[in-house]
Amino acid sequence: MFKRDRNGIKVLVIVLAALVIAACSSNEVSQTEDNPSTEQQQQNPQNASGGDQSITIGITRGPASFNPLDRPDWPSFRITSVMFPPLIELNNDLEFVPMLASSIETDDFQTYTVHLNQEATWTDGTPVTADDVLFSLEMATHPDVPVFLASQYALLEGVGADGNREQSDFSAFPGAKKIDDHTIQFVTKNPVAELTFNDKVASILRAIPKHVLGDVAPENLNQHPFMLEPTVSYGAFKFVRYQRDQYVELEANPDYFKGAPKLDKLFFKIVDPSSLVAQLESGDIDMNHPDIGLIPYQDHERLEGLEHLTVEYGGPINYKFIGIQTQKVAEKELRQAMAYGINRQLIVDNLLRGKGEVANGPYAPISPYYDESVRDYYPYDPEKAKELLAQIGWDGSRTLELLVPTGQGLEDAANIIDEDLRSIGITVNQVSVDMPTSIQLQVSGEYELALGNLAFQYEPDQSNFLKTGASNNFPFYSNARLDELFDKGAQAVDPEERKVYYNEYQHIYMTDLPHIPLYFDYRMMAVSKRVTKGKLADIGMLIDGHEWDVE
Fold it and tell me: Cβ atoms within 10 A of the Cβ of 520, count?
């Protein structure tokens, strides 16, 4: 059930389960005793479920949409994955397992043949075919369809670095073609490792229904009502309703190609962060979602001793860092001084209460590409930091602006960072913004420093974040040698050869510091003991959701 990392910390896989809220016929509910108000439903979801075969999962942020093409935010991505699973998905053993695809084959590491599960159908009975998957790719790479994840497809023939297709006629697209109704052939620009193709393309690409959306103009696709209320899907659960900022209700898809779910309903209850722990204590929710229902560190002890809950901690997979606009904070020595001046171990010990570890580079310690030697960079040394500042003639009257996204558990860390930097002579002005605003400001380059979080990425290629001109290169960073390493690493198919390139990348990263590494946190996951046949884990949340059950 569990895989341990090198420090013996349990790495957990949490599979999405459901929350129990009243099933109502519409969003406008009559406030009567027999038909309780939405407020009453939220307060007492167990009584509102209409049955016992439901599970309540608490999240602290609602989804922006249910767009299978993209990831507008983590709630959207996680919930949408229940309805529209990708071709394959990474599990807790760091293995890719079949989802919509039954198998993927390659002989030359440049042509990848994907075989779709022939049992997959849309919930209206229409088969899910190669036409649907190719239509999804066509829209995701269309210049008139903004898709944050589009750059993932840049390794395909005919797709530019920005993720947009280089020709308007998709029928002539060289990067993918239909072989038959359940077979697609993908072609990459250069040979790429199976891991790269799986992580960049196969684990991201989801199908959208061509028979429903095929006539929608590309420029209108993201705003189509389907993206807020999907009428058909092919995953283990299907959409019922979204009561904004209150709950998302899904129900079992009896025709799911991996088997009918044992649960009747899957609910996601959106609660205020301050009430998440209380509702776990009371049993009003059955579990939290560690990505989008973070339990505050100061509340961990409240849950650890409760008899009705199983409490576990994940491993070091979520990377917290300070993103830097390197054109505005151009002095490398300044960035290095900040790295020496921040007591990262204090953050882990005091703020995280030991449930984490200091980050020394962009790769999680559980990654097979993590280079142990990067641990030697930037021990806490305020005097060294002051020396570096003196070397560049640092003007102590200069103020650096730090974006602090709200609702991410980063506010307390920001206060520690603020105090540490002031002690070495760097004044920081904290600016609290929501995460979408923070991302917008970073995309435009209108920032200096920004606290950020990077979810675990098994594939070591991070060119979409740091390669010169990459669409998601928020630091506006450029290093010719790093660009070369990314190209070589992407084209190498031998894992040991790839390690050579990515080891050098980690050392350049730690020297130039387009980001300042902070820490990896161990997220708490709590689940009611009424939930059975489930796994607790950080990775592979949705793979076995159809097997979850309750006592």
Answer: 24
